[in-house]
Amino acid sequence: MLNLLITHATLPDGRTNMSVAVQDGRIVEVAAGLLAPAHETVDAAGQLLSPPFCDPHFHMDATLSYGLPRVNQSGTLLEGIALWGELKPLLTEDALVERALTYCDWAVAKGLLAIRSHVDTSDASLLPVRAMLEVKKRVAPYLDLQLVAFPQDGVLRAPGGLDNLKRALDLGVDVVGGIPHFERTMAEGAASVKLLCELAAQRGLPVDMHCDESDDPLSRHIETLAYETQRLGLQGRVNGSHLTSMHSMDNYYV
After folding, report:
1. Model pTM above 0.90
2. How far apart are CA 194 and CA 188, in angstroms?
3. pLDDT 10s digits, 65-78
4. Range of 35's domain?
5. How many CB atoms lie within 10 A of CB 57?
6. Contact 159, 146 (CB under 8 A)
7. Are residues 57 and 38 in the same domain?
8. How do residues 233-244 score in pLDDT, each as one tens digit?
9. Which residue among 93, 188, 213, 223 is the active-site one?
10. Are residues 12 and 76 in the same domain?
11. Is 213 a catalytic residue?
12. I want to staple 2 with a disulfide (CB 3.0 to 4.6 A). Which of 38, 80, 94, 161 is the partner?
């Protein structure tokens, strides 16, 4: 007898009235109109049956915080970062956990079962880190939550930035993050990429960096990230995100 049989499902490739048979946690058969005894049968009633959705870039420590402590009047990234700086002294672990758990419930209800979330490591208290690690533990039975150590204020720019990030990794954060375009100079940004990639290589961890969130065509930290990936043999373990400066660059250079 099957553990689970799902009937009358529509699959992502467009097939309809499909049945999916599951035994011992594995799909053993996909066929049209299959009927078989099962401990549990679910009639999909023509709805879509798909692999779970994945969100590869999120900031769960800031979720559901609209209007806290005030609304972003300009709608710009820089004011958003400033707002986060104003909010951080007011944060509590319980409130962070509560908002994140609410979001996780919403996500799972929509079929989102894997999330990579950046968590701010800039404050020496690591309060957001502790809160998100608690959330990760609570949602583990139904949601794969992967955390990125994100030095929001710059790993070299902020006092204690590197030490805080290392402590977050020691606590169990999964991925090394960075924000090179937010360091004080282009040289410091490139140095931060090198430093953080070497740290990831030493610890056997993936890398996910906000590289060039700027309209400045000379913000080119993605090339440093690509170089360090090859130099350290990190292929397949590195993501570069927020590469908005690329739309301002010369096409030949890109």
Report:
1. no
2. 10
3. 888 889 999 988 78
4. 2-43
5. 14
6. no
7. no
8. 999 999 999 999
9. 213
10. no
11. yes
12. 38
